[in-house]
Every structure is written in structure tokens, then in C-alpha cells.
Amino acid sequence: MAADTLICDRMRIDRNTGVGTVNGIGEVWGMAADTWDGVVAQLGDADWEKSTPCDGWKVRELVDHAMFWQGQGASAFGAAAAEGDWPALRASLRAALDDPSNMEGKAEQFGGAPMPAVAGLITADLLVHSWDLAIAIGADATLPEAAAESTLMGLQRLPEQMLRNEQMFGPAIEVDADASAQDRLIGFVGRQP
Q1: Residue 137 in contact with residue 25, Cβ under 8 Å?
Q2: I want to staple 31 with a disulfide (CB 3.0 to 4.6 A). Which of 59, 86, 98, 144 is the partner?
Q3: 181-188 vs 115-137: helix crossing angle, rounded to 10
Q4: Contact indicator for 59, 49 with CB cutoff of 8 Å
């Protein structure tokens, strides 16, 4: 193991960049996808028109948004699946994220962002919207702590102008320094934990 890497339990943190992973972005994305699937499985017919923590969005719009951006991410990584086929998209995208060679280069459809940043953004989108969806339908909104920590660390490395706009996240909401990784992540993306 390189001296510039710190291992805490299953979290790998690069001492130079502060970027943490849980054995790779594919594993973190997989945790986000598991969380998403667990919440979506609880959706009932009466839930689709409920309001979400995303201003102006109903559950249906939130789900459509999340699936659209997962599809965009899949396209950037060369993962293929038919539109609307989440199980196939999930499997294909997970395989693409697990392949280190896919982390090279930039994604033009994401404004020329480096591929690891794109992986982090689609992971954050799925994880945070899992929380949004759970809050909207009254389900358990607990996120995997390691995924929340790794996602937060990745987002904190991105330029503010990339994160704070109508398309992404609102202003961060301050939380206590000793708050859980989930609460720090949710506050960072502009939601009240």
C-alpha cells in the first residue's frame, strides 16, 4: 500500500487529495443503487404526486430526473441499456464503473468533466435523490454511512461554480461539525437534514 493512502475500516482516503473511496467508485455507486432500489420498492400508487424536498418536484419528476441522469452517466461510460430498463442499466453501469480504464479521459456530455468527477456526480445524484424520495413518501431515509462519507468527500473537491446552480445544488446548509456523514452530505447539497 502506498504511503499516501490511509485506510480506515473499508474507506480508502488519498492523503494528497482527500478523496475517499470504498474499494472504488463502483462499490459506492452500488450502495447508492441499492438504497434507491430499496426506496423505490416502497412506492405506492398514491405516492407519485407527493411533493419532494426538491422545490417544485413531485415524486414522478424526481424519479424521472434520477433515471435520466443515470442514463446520461451510463452513456458517458459506454454502458448500454434500453431506455426504461433500470435493471439492465444498473448492471451495465456498475460493470463500467468497476473498470478502472473507464476513469480515464473526460466526458463531453458533462461539460468536459473528468470521468471520475462524472462517476461521483451520478453517484451523488442517485444517493441524494434516494434520500429525497424516502422523505417524500415517509420511508426510512437512512443512507449507507460509507457511501455518504465518500460522496461528500468527492463533492467537496468539485468547484463551487459547478455545484451551486439551478441545475445542481442550492446553497449549503450548515450542520454541526460532529454530525453524521449523511447529515453533512444532505446539508452540503442544500437540504435540511
Answers
A1: no
A2: 144
A3: 100
A4: yes
**Residue stretches of the chain with pLDDT short of 70:** 1-23
| Grid coordinates given for 36 | 434507491
Rounded Cα distance, 181 and 57, in Å: 25
User: Which grid cell is 103?
Assistant: 476513469
Closest by Cα among 162, 155, 143, 147 to 188:
155
What does the pLDDT look like over 115-144, one tens digit per residue?
999 999 999 999 999 999 999 999 999 999
N- to C-terminal Cα separation, the chain: 36
**pLDDT for residue 12:** 53
In angstroms and rounded to an integer, the radius of gyration of the C-alpha atoms of the chain is: 16
For 14, list phi and psi in degrees, rounded to 5: -75, 120
> Do residues 147 and 155 make contact, with C-beta atoms less than 8 angstroms apart?
no
**Per CATH, which fold does 25-164 belong to?**
Four Helix Bundle (Hemerythrin (Met), subunit A) (1.20.120)
pTM, rounded to two decimals? 0.86
